[in-house]
Specification:
This protein is mainly α and 129 residues long. The chain folds into 2 domains: 2-69; 74-125, no CATH class. It contains 3 helices and 5 strands; from the N terminus they run ααββαβββ. It has helices at 2-25, 28-69, 91-97, and strands at 74-76, 79-81, 103-105, 116-118, 124-125. It starts with a helix and ends with a strand.
Length: 129
């Protein structure tokens, strides 16, 4: 975005220089074309500024929607559960990436490491009942 504004500023400076040169030529048609070009460049610069402001507002709105969409889970007994008691969900995925990843029963041979395993990150967790 900054490159576009710099480019337009450069074009405006070129138009200014053309205006100075045109003073020596005294051609009305060239003066009109330079004036029209100057107006169009100013309009483009204003449009870019408006788009930049709107873009920033939309980014803030997207962040707010993402944060509001994320369901608040409760941490208990070594894992997360939703308000309806559904769970357990992976603490690592929820804390790190805000993902609601279900924990599944682990192979009983590995219960000494953890009785549940995340279906996404594959980490094992000890969840007490």
């Amino acid at each position: 975005m900054i490159e576009i504004i710099a480019s337009i500023n450069s074009a405006i400076e070129t138009v200014r220089k053309l205006g100075v040169l045109n003073e020596k030529i005294k051609d009305a048609d060239v003066k009109m074309l330079i004036a029209d070009l100057n107006i169009e460049l100013a309009n483009a610069k204003n449009s870019i500024a408006e788009l930049s402001t709107e873009n920033q507002k939309l980014k803030v709105e997207i962040d707010e929607l993402r944060n509001n969409k994320m369901e608040k889970l409760q941490f208990k007994r070594g894992a997360y559960y939703d308000t309806a008691g559904d769970g357990p969900f992976c603490p690592g995925c929820y804390d790190g990436k805000h993902l609601k990843s279900r924990l599944v029963d682990n192979n009983p041979d590995f219960n000494f490491i953890g009785n549940y395993k995340c279906s996404v990150c594959t980490k094992m967790f000890k969840v007490t009942e």
